[in-house]
Each structure stands twice: as structure tokens, then as C-alpha cells.
Write the C-alpha cells for this entry.
Amino acid sequence: MAPGLVNTSQPDSAPVSAQKELVGPKEAFIGGPQAYSKTGEEQGTKTQPAAKHPNYLPTWDPETKYSPLEPFTHYEHGKDADPSFKDLLRDASSVTEITPTTGTEVRGVQLSSLTNEGKDQLALLVAQRKVVVFQDQDFADLPIKDAVKFGEYFGRLHIHPTSGAPAGHPEIHLVHRGADDTAAAEILKTRTNSITWHSDVTYEAQPPGTTFLYVLDGPKAGGDTLFANQAVAYNRLSPEFRKRLHGLTALHSGQYIPCNA
């Protein structure tokens, strides 16, 4: 998790009428605990199979409270990395750049088996390529504590205060849709598609710097995620257009999150 250059001053609360019009990313349209059925998840329903990894099923504890976040100093392990990636890519069977500037697909490397040197090189590669896809990983089949320990090497882990998490592991943020949950259909009532560009947790003073995603259960089709490189987008602007952006500020809000808790 890397520090962000943000202004943490809080604006006055928006009027109730305006709050109702706020729209978050697609995750805001997932039914959450209101649409969750433990029995349906563990045993399956008429239309959905049982969860493949029941140890990852979300739990919500309204009694759990978290202290306000304290500022911290992030250490960037990518600075220690050998730029030849000899420890990270030693066993790679293929390394393919998905686009010239963003995205790389790697096969033949098991991340959970990396040495610290390999992890440092992973941090550097992700910083350079922004999105790196490693095929055939075993994180979903390992004890959750091992996945958490792997992530802790790269920095303090973020805890999402309202989303469901596996019991005892609040650092795991689940993008979870309950069996037979149709709440996501609401997004198409006012849109022609389900694309909602966003950058995660930007409303915090020190937003997450790196995210590890791995699939537990996924649809046979659909569910694609698109990634945009904002640094490249900015660099492609004309010098005069860039000047128009300098000094502008934006309000980053997570107000929709407690409404869906």
C-alpha cells in the first residue's frame, strides 16, 4: 500500500436528495449481506452450484469496530529488485506483453513459491507494467493465512470496513455476489452497459498501491475487467491540455459504501 497525495479535508455533508443520486462502482450494486444465504452458498440453489471454496465465503460482524487509520511509511520493495527479473521469471514458460505500455501475461511461475528476491522483482514488474497476469496460481487452494502472509510482504494490508470477508481474515476483500442475487441488474436500468471506471479506495489518505486478485468462482462467460493506464493517458495529452488540468481538484467519496453495508 503506497501513500497518496490527497487533501483529507472533509466537505459538508451532501443533502439527502443529492445522496440518493450518488452512484458507486459495480460493487455497489451487489446485494451484500441482505442478499446472502449461507445455506444457498454452501449447498447450492436451483440455479447456482455450491461454492467451490466455502472457507472464503463472506461474513459480516456489525459489532466489529476499527480504529481510525494512522499514517504510515510505505517501503517500496521494487527499489531492491534486480531489473533482469532473474528470480521472478526463471521458470517462466512464456512472458507476453498484452499491450505496448500496459499488461503482461506470465505462464510457468508459481507466485506462492517466490523467494524474497522474486517478490521484490514482482513489485518492480507490476510498477512497470501496471497489470500482470500470472496463470494457474494456487492461492485459492492454500490456507487463507498463507495468502495473507504473501500480501503482507509488500506493505500494510488494507481492511475494507464494510465488505464481507472470510471469518478471521478481514484483509481479504471479497467481490462476491450471492447465489441468485439479482441486485446487479439494477445497474442496467439507467445504463446501456455495465462499465463503471473507478480506482479503488481513493477516498483514503493512503490508498492501496498494489492489489492481488485471484478467482474463486467465476461465470463461464462475462465478468471481464478492463484496466486503463492513467499515466499514459496523461502523457498523450497536449502540453496545453495538461496545463488546464494542473491545480484542479476532485472530491473522492466512499459515501455509497455504508449504504450497502
Summary: Residues 1-23 have pLDDT under 50 and may be disordered.
